[in-house]
Amino acid sequence: MLLGTGGVSVFALQFCKAMGVRTTVTSSSNDKLARARSLGANHTINYCAMPDWETGVLDLTHGSGVDRVIEVGGPGTLQKSIAATRVSGAIQLIGVLTGAGGEIAPTDIMRKSISVRGIYVGSRTMFAEMIEFMTTHRIAPVIDEIFEFNDAPKAFKRMRTATHFGKLVIRVSSDSGL
Ligand SMILES: NC(=O)c1ccc[n+]([C@@H]2O[C@H](COP(=O)([O-])OP(=O)(O)OC[C@H]3O[C@@H](n4cnc5c(N)ncnc54)[C@H](OP(=O)(O)O)[C@@H]3O)[C@@H](O)[C@H]2O)c1
To answer: Which of 42, 74, 86, 149 has its CA 20 to 30 A from that of 21?
Structure first.
């Protein structure tokens, strides 16, 4: 289960596809969901059209829930992710797009024996392993737009609009290959 179609989630979709993992992707945009399907997403849900998207996920999994959630929403989505996760499933908490604080009812984490794990970047070794995996599976980042360094403020402005799909890049060197 992947939330949204930003840089983290689109990369996660590419990794899942390479590993043969079945995915459900949510987005606020049907166009972005179509792009997610073209990258291999098995199921897609528009979370604006279906605010109770966790029930859609449960329907897709015949009531049992998904194995894993890549959580980038934080307090605004975590409760739904808990509801969408199967017994003994796992939630990887990577982002807090909806804010840093909020209320979470923890009962279902306990009742369903869900593991919630925070991820804050990784080690150099993990990065090297990721690059090796990307090379083996010919995974290239999905880049929506590249900005020159002097246009960095425009890149951050674009990011705030959340109209991008995948990565926004700020070029820091002419040797970057982009
Ligand atoms: N822990 C770490 O190591 C690490 C590393 C990188 C990033 N992060 C964090 O992870 C989060 C995502 O980063 P990113 O680079 O992927 O950001 P991003 O490219 O700006 O992605 C934002 C996308 O998330 C989706 N989204 C926003 N609010 C949502 C909601 N309420 N429900 C579902 N989806 C929602 C939207 O997708 P749609 O437009 O498709 O609706 C939006 O376009 C950020 O909080 C970032 O700081 C953490």
So the answer is: 74
Distance from Cα 79 to the centre of ligand 1, integer Å: 17
Whether 116 contacts 110, CB under 8 Å: no
Give the Cα separation of 100 and 15 in Å (integer): 27
Per CATH, the number for 2-140 is 3.40.50.720
The alpha carbon of 163 and the centre of ligand 1 are apart by a number of angstroms equal to 12
Residue ranges matching CATH 3.40.50.720 in the chain: 2-140
Q: Report d(CA 133, CA 75) in Å as an integer.
A: 32
pLDDT tens digits for 4-19?
999 999 999 999 999 9
**Contact (CB, 8 A) for 84 and 1:** yes
Burial string for 104-133 (b: 16+ CB within 10 Å, else e) reads eeeeebeeeebebeeeeeeeeeeeeeeeee
pTM over 0.85: yes
By alpha-carbon position, which residue is closest to atom 1 of ligand 1? 120
Residue 147 in this model has a pLDDT that exceeds 80: yes
Q: Are 42 and 22 in contact (CB under 8 A)?
A: yes
Residue nearest to atom 19 of ligand 1 (CA): 6
